[in-house]
């Protein structure tokens, strides 16, 4: 049995009261009751942000999914950062949280639960802050420190706090540090005795439900915990005030992670009361009983209803069906019930796209063929990983390490890193772009299943599978960065390959694509969401899908870019202060892989933060220990903090709520993961940055469009699903039976837009065109650009296939004719024909213009709404035609000559090779006139001939003999077969060879060949045969 | 093989009448049985009598593959210089005493070496002896193809006896195998056309610059037995464990890696347990599937 203090709290301060706490403990240890609470809280703690999680033994397992893997080092690093901030913030001794926090910080004093069995943690004393659990089971805990400690530790008290509240909060005089420490020591010694607890060895596995039954400690109704009763709530007015205060902190983004607070509130809601008689403790116990906890929680939920209502349907259902909510606020229950009706979710799959790389992309045949092998080797690894990575004891390095390195070294030899990097990146996007439920893997799209079941059933089936396969442990709302699903393969591959060339090429490729994605136009730049009727539903839906696709790809790429970029600096432990300083000085000199600050500022100015911030967050989450200390990244993190602090939910003016929610969620997560220096959150705002952020140049941008839907939110922030798990666990009475997770599969649309069209146009024309599009729905521009791009491209293809082919054919004819003449100089002939062809090639531009004018208008017309006015239509058609022609002609004028020369070269070679034998080859290329293609197969005839031969040559038995008739019949069939070009195919010389064998055996005379094969003579074969005979 | 002389109108399609998927256990039985066989038409008859329920072509294919494995295993034994010398000396001495007997064929059967391979070794020795230098591959191949190019007419006769009687190795077998492969690819194309499925064949794909190309790529994927099929590979042989794994590594996975799931047709059947990669994108069949589902139109209907 681990720490049994119920739900953890976002507060930093452990505020416990000795008596109750102790009693609690002995209770628990005695009868092992309420395993639900314990397992849940333990789990929640394990995966809390570093602040809460400290060095819990169970933490290690959770953390190892993160890139850095080790827990203790985070603790140390954190400690360093934390201490500095505290040094600064010490001005306010009033704040009890910080003081006590120091206690918990000291891992020597307060080792993590389960540390006894976790050597790394034990041997590396980490002074991480332990999670600070608060719950009804510690009825005497000081409520004020439960929930507002975080904002309170701001050096300057937030102006938003009402005077009275502030006074109240500071008034609660802190326990003496000694007292607290004493208490926690006791607790620690208790924990130390519990080393044999099964929970410690397998901290992530949930307590089985049956245990609950056996022990008769089901949550509802729990004989030990009283049913929360609104009438038993004490100190209502104080609680109201506190709730209001707390909500203000949330609303004003004064807490580092809004969702962490929400998680806490839900933990309070689902806490299991322990009927503890109020001991005469001097501390005020606002949340001292389950009634107060639930009351407070419901008040906060009511206040934060808008935020809550944006959670997924299942969470809302669970909330609305939660009897405590109903008991304490029927109106909240009704609102929740209403809200869930507005929720929708869709399921679709990621399509498989085969990639092609042909020879012309490689410097040499050798490189091409090496890469051909590498591709298969790479997929071989992937399959092997899929097959075995879940098997116990399987290790990437041990199983694949040497082979991966060998493959990479072959890449080096062939110099095809860039190709492999591209393949790697494409495959990464294809396999990992979609959502990965935390802790699950193997997301292969089941096209077959989809075909059989249809998308709806497939979704259900998947969810079922999820429920059966996926461990349902709570991991808390701020899990450390991880590489779920197939991402792990790619991560391990890079780690194992540890190839600097490959990494460099990947960095180049990732950077390029990220910046391209960041610039991608989801809509026309001037699109306005206000034009309701013009931006039809279909358009919006398409935009949302496109945005989702772009965002998810960007986040994935950014994570890997961060991973590769900071990989060289990753250390298992936080370096000492001296080394830190040296490293900072050293690394400040070289330029960072990506100018995140510039990208961020630009995105703010152009109001595209909804796209940029989420991927920057992914990138920065991969930082190494020193990274955040570098001025450059510190600035970036400060910028993000500013953005967060300004991102007040529901008060963003034009900003859409869901957009804000996504940003608040990802930023809050970033601020809670181990890498984020805590002091930063409470540092004073650099004024100039604030100013800079206000300098918004664009009147409209992505931020003002409703681009984020719930599906995207949950895909980007799978940890939001923790709310649902928490509530479901409450219903089920056990964490092991949470309601199952709905795995969402994100629809991805093909990236339609090609490179932007030629910009070398007269400025006026361009301006006019822009003006035209300005007042049209954005879909019009997209359609026009798309069609132009496609038509232009088709035009080029068409010209390649027709005009070029015809010209080359004509050239071949000229060549053949000229070769027949006496005294020709082939080299001269070649040159002159080539020159002629290139001249003639210039007509390609005319052809292209004609092609585009013929095809572009029709295509646009079909794609635009029927109701489009004629003049708009005509304009769109002419713009499309112009763009398509421009595209085609610019390509053609640059490439047609080269293309023709290349084609001619190979045609010339072909002709020269075939000329000497061309006469003979031209013979007999078709079947005899009345051929029905129903002749014996060549192979059969050949087998028969061989059979006859083997009998003829012997040794043979008495009964093995052929009559003349049989031989004649065979010959007849041979004749038939030879008469049909379709059957005879290419290996005609093989037949002739066999027939010759027959003749040589004396089985056939030459005359017989003549009489039995009348058809052969018609086919001009005899002369060939004659040549053999 | 004698059968086909009398029933000459047999077509490839007729072979599908007999069952051609064999479970691994049964395959092992056949494998054990063929261990004692030699690649002669007499032995083929024995094999057919032993397993009358299997089509002769399937049996021949199984035997041929097993025999090739056997030859590869014993290659080192037969190719040791002193062993070759001994074979040659034996032939030489016997050729003097009883030139009319099928000497090389007997020797081959006696030492369990393919007659055609033995003939090759002997001709090689013969040429070395005469010219005191190693003969070129080209010359050697030509002499096996047309034994009467060999200056020694008696040797020529014996060599011919070997190549003509060997049903697993030799120039004639190569011709036949080549033809069978092409015919089945052709058959596949015909079936696809009959079913109105449009496709790109290997040559078209190569022209487009693909690095690895299956026989057929469907322009619009189909579904067979609920599995998506993008490409089809035709194999005019029996799919046993060894050959299938070689093909998987050298071809099928490569196709999957490039084009997605596909179908492999082993026209002469296969070990049924090998059809276990369906979910990974490789489906096995022993003939052209009749249960094709196409996009939009449901089950495809052939014109036949």
Automatic annotation (TrEMBL), chain A:
One of its GO terms (biological process) is chromatin organization. One of its GO terms (cellular component) is nucleus. Residues 703-816 form the Codanin-1 C-terminal domain. It holds the Pfam family Codanin-1_C. Residues 1-23, 32-44, 97-106 have a biased composition (Polar residues). Residues 1-182, 210-231 are annotated as: Disordered. This is Codanin 1. It comes from Cyprinus carpio.
UniProtKB/TrEMBL annotation, chain B:
Pfam families: TPD. The keyword Cytoplasm applies. GO terms for biological process: erythrocyte differentiation. It is found in: Cytoplasm; Nucleus. Its main location: cytoplasm. Keywords: Cytoplasm, Nucleus. Transmembrane segments: none annotated. One of its GO terms (cellular component) is cytoplasm. InterPro entries: CDIN1. This is CDAN1-interacting nuclease 1. It comes from Cyprinus carpio. The lineage of its organism: Eukaryota, Metazoa, Chordata, Craniata, Vertebrata. The gene is cdin1.
